[in-house]
Amino acid sequence: MKALVRPARGLKGRISVPGDKSISHRSVMLGALGDGDTKVRGFLPGGDPLATVSAVRGIGIEVEQASQTELVVHGKGLHGLSEPEDVLNCVNSGTTARLMAGILAGQDFFSVLTGSPQLRRRPMGRIADPLRRMGADIDGRGRSGYLPLSIRGGHLRAIEYDQPVASAQVKSAILLAGLFADGETIVRQPGPSRDHTERMLKAMGVDVRTEGLVVRLSPPQGKLAPLEMTIPGDASSAAFPLVAAILVPGSEVVIENVGVNPTRTGLLDVLKAMGASFRLDGERESGGEPVADLAVEHSEMCAGFVSGDTVVRMIDEFPILAVAATQAIGTTEVRDAQELRVKETDRIAAVAEELGKMGAEIEELPDGFKVHGPSELHGAVVDSRGDHRLAMALTVAGLIASGETTVLGADCASDSFPGFFETLRALGADVELV
Length: 434
Ligand code: S3P
Known about the structure:
By secondary structure, the protein is an alpha/beta fold. Helix content is 31%, strand content 28%. The protein is built from 15 helices and 24 strands. The chain has helices spanning 21-33, 47-58, 94-105, 117-120, 125-133, 141-144, 168-178, 196-203, 235-247, 266-274, 309-312, 318-325, 347-356, 388-399, 420-426, and strands at 3-6, 12-16, 35-41, 62-67, 70-76, 88-89, 110-114, 137-140, 146-152, 160-162, 185-188, 207-211, 214-218, 228-230, 252-259, 277-286, 289-297, 305-306, 330-334, 361-365, 368-373, 381-383, 405-408, 430-433. Strand 16 and strand 17 (289-297) form a beta hairpin. 56% of the residues are buried. Residues 22, 25, 95, 167-169, 172, 193-194, 315-316, 339 line the site of shikimate-3-phosphate.
């Protein structure tokens, strides 16, 4: 399906965004390992977390969906999973594939993970290598570099692992395998990747300790306590209406109940430094995560510079940052972000080429990009390339472009943000999915 987007005049209103994608995945996977029923509210019913529900069902766990956003995961404990009868299809979801691999590495049975053509192009050696070092028997396409991967695990050794790249998916895979290892697992991170796995495992009673960038996990002696949790709104989804309101003159928007875990708020820091006007109201805790309401209004911005740890803290926000930077005065530069090349698409090339069709001046760098702003965007036919975040970033660009913008393949927005187009319409935007 394609989105037809026309220039917006002043976005106004109070909205909320769907539940956090990373936490939704983990609620189901960790719930499966808990001893009893994990009750989840605010679950994200998007394509990616639903792939996790189906994978977890495949290893013998009953997941009841009381409504779109309410789940009960009937956990069977650390040793209650069973051999799947068929391959486990992770569809487009890298988090499903990589975290499930960590759990499956701890199981003394045979399983196969696969996914869509898009996911089968994404690197899996980064989890296969450490899990193999822990003793799991893993094989796969391209010497286990790519899905499909076959896994036969059990009897794992604890390892100390220095991560070559900052990745919460890899860290989580090793920690989840560490639940089944014979001693303390230690992961050293090169940067502060999201810590939802550590927070949730701790809430379930697991001994996980973080000191700076080092995480240590001791395998549990007893059972894992099931959780009752309310998942906050996804900061990465909130980024789209947030930037839309900053860019469209006359806008005033409140986004309620957004997760503001410091490992996820790099974009807020960067936009603030560029001069964007927003504030966090009513900061509070919900389900072990910090949450706030984001009140934002239209603002003029200057160029920004992003590198190092901030890149890790906003790894999914670069397509929308690039859109914001097209309207900032000066050259915005992003460095140390080579990981963007192995996301749902090569996001450096895709952002430069697709926004370029609308008149943006974006220079590709091996590890990032430069956006020369401000530029007047014009409507064009652009392509999401099957990447949900590109689809949403291009739609926001369409709101500030002259004429009509057509975003091809826009329906993939529902991988992480079902209701994205309706949410923009509720703020007064002229967008339709046809
Ligand atoms: C995620 C971690 C990030 C992020 C992805 C979700 C997670 O990937 O891009 O959307 O839930 O752990 P990496 O950890 O591989 O950078």
